[in-house]
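Bench notes, afternoon.
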Amino acid sequence: MLRKAAGLGRRLGRPSWLWEKQMIRHLRQTIKRLGPDIVNSHTIKADYAAAKALQGLSIPLVVTMHGCYELFLHKADAPEVAPKGKFALQQASALVYLTGKNLEIFEQPGVRPLGSLLNQKIYNGFDGQLSADKSNYSRAALGIPANASVFGMVARGIPEKGWGHAVNSFLALETAHPELHLVLVGESDYLTELHKQHPHPRLHFTGFSHNPIDWVDMFDVGLLPSYFHAESLPNSIAEYLSCGKPVIASRIGEVPAMLESEAGLAGVVLDQANWQLTDPGQLTEAIRDYLTQPALLAEHQRRATLAFEKFRMIHCLGAYEELFRQARTI
């Protein structure tokens, strides 16, 4: 009932202090009962709740940033949320971030200096597996010929991820390249409307997927022309690379570094500024290059496997375990 009341309060522009108070109280009781060595939280509101619940307890809080701190700095409700982030960071024993962009919050007045806080950049680990139902997520399932060129995209169903740019580039190339198919994996009202606007037999909207790499495995190239404020270390790019797929993505967050390999970039980085693609035509040309230069595609596929090495789960686990050990000694 409190959760529903809080939701109604948000829609009416009223703070949900009662729900928040009870949630923090419950969290504190749970922490006392379980007695963990470390508490690790992952979003501003969770960071704040954990920091409040841990007050007076000798249990370190480790905050992991995924992009929501800088996102809230650019949102209308920043005056409400930003103080919670400042409080959480003040109480934290250590900080994990995914990209330097996450640290924008430390440029704000009233935030503790970054240097006063144990901090480390740690990439998320990825250990995805193809599902037992993989045969349902194949080219054949979508009526795509085995020798077609398949470009695909997996992301949240919001416009800022660049779905419209992907569709526009497909439409610019589909006549000259009848072998081209575009597969879009995601679900939202926005994507439903986009599908209605662009019915095309080689433009495939699959809807939501519980295991996106089942679809990614059938791509030749993965796309993410994103201009989303909070973009940090996009999971979809790690998913593309894990399947050996080169990537065409925006120069945002940690994306350029994600595509680095010992042999060079495993894809193409698109220019982005002021939360828009600088030149959407770059996406079209990058797709055209892969369609017309099979040797380039093969080389970037080879690099994709090399670029994925940094996302092996063993590296992520080892880094977190060491940081947790250090946080316990503070």
